[in-house]
Amino acid sequence: MRFELFIAARYLRAKRRQAVVGVVTGISVLGVAAGVASLIIALAITNGMRRDLQDRLVGSTAHVDLMKVAGDGMRDWQPLLARLRGVKGVVAAAPGLYGQVLISRGARSGGALIKGILPADERTVSDLLGAVRDGSARELEPDAVADSTDPNARAIAPIVIGKDLGESIGAGVGDTVLVTSPQGELTPLGIVPRYERFRVVGIFASGFYQYDSSYCYMRLKDAQRLFSEPDLISIISFKVKDLYQAAEIGKTIEAAAGAGFQTTNWMEQNRELFRALKLEQVVTFIVLALIVCVAALNILIALTMMVMEKTRDIAVLMSFGVTERQVRRIFLFQGLLISVVGTVIGLVVGYGASWAGGHYRFIRLDASVYSIDYLPFAPKVLDAVIVAAVSLGVSLLATLYPSRSAAKVLPAEALRYE
User: Which residue, 295, 298, 273, is CA-closest to 387?
Assistant: First the structure.
């Protein structure tokens, strides 16, 4: 151990002539530990919320969507779909037909976004059909109606709706709803909206109000019949191998599709949401870092008081040949030791609390408000490095003034009356 570090450690362990110096030193250690632990826990929570939100978004939507820039959609889409499935990086692809409709049951109604799908293909690009809580999406399969013994199943086409949409119109599994399309038929009396009855066979709950309150799924051929658009789709959805390369793979898909097509990806569709989460994480870090700054002020006070207490000892050391630089290093190391001890304690407490919170899920949430029933934790090693660097850096700045004051002690003046 080098000389300056040895003296600094001795000063920290030595008994105090003034007990208040020891108390302030202990408070400094606890302050640094509290600040570091708070930062680790807060960052773990924001990381956990971002991870869970991203997993739910990626599971509920496709990674890349291909649409036609002009026109009403894609016709003769089967060869295009087969060709795009072979694009490098594409894992699966599924066609879909979107359309805005009015869905009603009795006197209650609401706007909805219909998506006509091929269930087997849709399950390869999205997990939303797997989120059916009541009923089953099995009846959307092509052979489900033919195999059914229920005469209503043969007469009325099936539909799967979101949980919040079902609550708003008062529809449950087995109920019949009326779906009205604004794309009606031209008659002598004008355009008459086209409508058709569907039987609710399943209700999904994705955890996102946007989907649960407006999304409905039906078979592709039923949607095409409702919109009077046979052999038409509006979108091709893709699942890619690396979801973080969705933008690059989307450009490759555009090039393979040819002119007149464009793609969007899950990052573009949710850019503002993730930007807000990132800003929240930065603001949280700045606010909680103030705790470390307060602890650094305690370190400054503790070292200043220690310099006053150790003035005679400093003078004796300097009379023995200790240089001003060495005296400065003694108190720099002393403040650094306080910061290191507090930082280590804070990291242990922070990661311990984060692990316990993520493992035992003892902090419960209202699922109807937050979409999840527990508070997620996702601590990262990089966060520990950043927090430790900030803690040590701020604490080191706090030691500059006391260490400089200690180096300016004049041995003759300090020992004159000894």
Answer: 295
